[in-house]
């Protein structure tokens, strides 16, 4: 991609794969234009992205963002929260390790394993609700709204000690924060309301601590006042709420779409020829729930895969492009194939990150998605999309990668059938 013809990121999002293929054909790194005309870069090739994510001269801290430092980023810029929120995703070195270790106490392998019965119980209840909704809707229900959303949202809110009264509000605000076509006033209002809502959660947990991560973070801060600042506390909760459900929501949604569009692959899994974990991993590769994640910044001028990246440039991690990079995943990288991992073809995907910032919630996301898909298709093996794939509205973001609704038709028990 010629630097004189940078790719303009579409704030409305849309399916990323056609544009990714065009850009990858010209190189692993592409100049892009971010909302507001801000110049940036996107790393799209698998190997280039892997190197970039662990490069010693690449940082996450907003102090390295040259345009922000120079006053060129307004308060209502749609990606400003990604750059400035105080938490793990904008911290480096010792500060990052400190915040990650505090948040990680809720997501250890042992703690996640203990969550399995609760995830299974919630999945069973949501499937009952999905069936009941379909019965009142001529066999059709929005799977994203009634199943893919409440499963990860309910789980992460329980881990954080967030009461049910806040769940819908937190999802609404999270959706706005990851939207890239949001206007300045709406963006700032969403930031304020999110901070106020999480502040209310913190106040409630201070007044009545429980066995939850918010209470543990408060205790850590108050035991050592300089260990976790108030802004870091709110920022950590914000990141865990958003990342703890938006990505898994997209993962489950995209996996259902993929299986409905590839019935041979669904039959293979239902027949025992591949596992549900294979479905999760292939979905992460083939249709990553996060398309272009903001931001990392070179701390000095770099050249990556032959492309110069000036110091201070905001760089997007192109996970959806890397997942279909033929150089890494073979000439059939654009094909959805749940046997890919078992056959040893291709390379392990990067969709959950790589290096020090590898997704802290990856084990939980995998657990939730595997249980959700297995129970869903075991109960409703004939489930299918109720509208053609091309008519599904996309999420308004080039960060998130999924659709806003997923109407499906169920073959119901007791005589109610899909027609």
TrEMBL record:
It comes from the Bacteria. The keyword Iron applies. Gene3D superfamilies: Cytochrome P450. Belongs to the cytochrome P450 family. InterPro entries: Cyt_P450, Cyt_P450_B, Cyt_P450_sf. Coiled coil: none annotated. The keyword Heme applies. Keywords: Heme, Iron, Metal-binding, Monooxygenase, Oxidoreductase. One of its GO terms (molecular function) is iron ion binding. This is Cytochrome P450. Pfam families: p450.
